[in-house]
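Feature request, filed as a ticket because there's no other form

It would be nice if the structure record came with a short human-readable summary line next to the tokens. Right now we just get the raw output. Example of a typical job, pasted below so the devs can see what we mean:
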Amino acid sequence: MVGVLLGNFVFGGVSDYIGRRSTFIFALIGLAVVANLSAFTHSLFFFCFLRVCIGFFVGGVGMVAYVTITECVGSSQKVFAGSMFQGVFSIGIMGFALMANFLRDWRYLVVASSFPFCFFIFIYWIVPESSRWLASQGRISEAEDILLYIAHKNGNEVKKSAIELVVPSKTISSTKSYGYTDLLKTPVLRKEMLIQAFSWFTCSLVYYGLTLSAGDIASNAYISVALSGLVEIPGIFFCVWCMDSLGRRKCMCLSMITGGFSCFLVIAFSQSGEFGKSVSVVFALIGKMGLSAAFSVVYIYSCELIPTVVRNSGIGFCSICARIAGILAPMATSLGFFNMYALFGFTSVISGVLNLKLPETFGMTSPESIDDVENRTTNKQPTSTTMVDSETVHDMEERISMLQNTDTSVT
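Raw output as currently delivered:
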């Protein structure tokens, strides 16, 4: 977790500066090298060092991959794509448990789970740069080329004039670089970032805490790990429906409060004999399902709330808060059964309520600049020029959605 925290901090700002694809490939190469190398070390110190390095590169790969996914699909597919990203993670937990059941030698297990990273490097020649990031940097022509590439890959014969992005004459390109400090400079963005940071912290704290405390749900450790991944899938499918039906804000609130009250019910039933203990385990799993659902929502919600110019920095900042909570989660068990679940319950409920203070993003154009965030709650006109305004972004999203529809031929 320490390594992941450092990776989120470093790669968040780097990908906003040099681009998503280059940052992703660099982190992926580093991950492939250190992960495979860890299987051959005979020094405990060096092994621990490599594990920190693995976490460092995992933090970069996971965060940049998620941001790229949500930026490279149309608005209508964003929820599905983001939720499936989380679903694959859950499948990976179950698959790793199955692999570990047959490969009891840890060195073979490390190689079997690490070697496939070497093949993923070819993604560089398959997946293009994020068109949204290019547009946010004022590189409109390159963004149009990416959209043309998407159209051709989908089998559509499209002329470049059909996907020309409209850039108002008032829009002026900027070469300003953005970083973590820009997340807290303006009042509206600062408020939203602090609420999101607390939400990520709570999701991680309760999610990993419930995972550790539910380790005795089966006598077989491998089955326990597999069940901890399996229980997340219903929550993820619930998110796919809920986010487009109730909206991001209400879905986030509902997931967090469900997880919080499940923790309170764990405390209540744990004092009711053997049957009560069995019921408390069920509510612990329901709580984890609620928090896994909240994790799926918070990624998408944050990507839609944070402007493109600082999106990776913002996600990196939030992820740092989540990793700090992941480090603290094992320590929460020392608080005792009652205090631990009470902490999980209160933080989840408080976080769910705080999310009602955030704006709804469903059906709205994602902000491109910090000015877009500051002006959306006051309905003010921007007082300064931005790299790409909302009209351009809305036009680009329509083009992406059109070009991803393989059933439509555009001439």
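Something like this underneath would help us a lot:
Residues 168-173, 378-388, 406-411 have pLDDT under 50 and may be disordered.
The first helix runs from residue 2 to 18.
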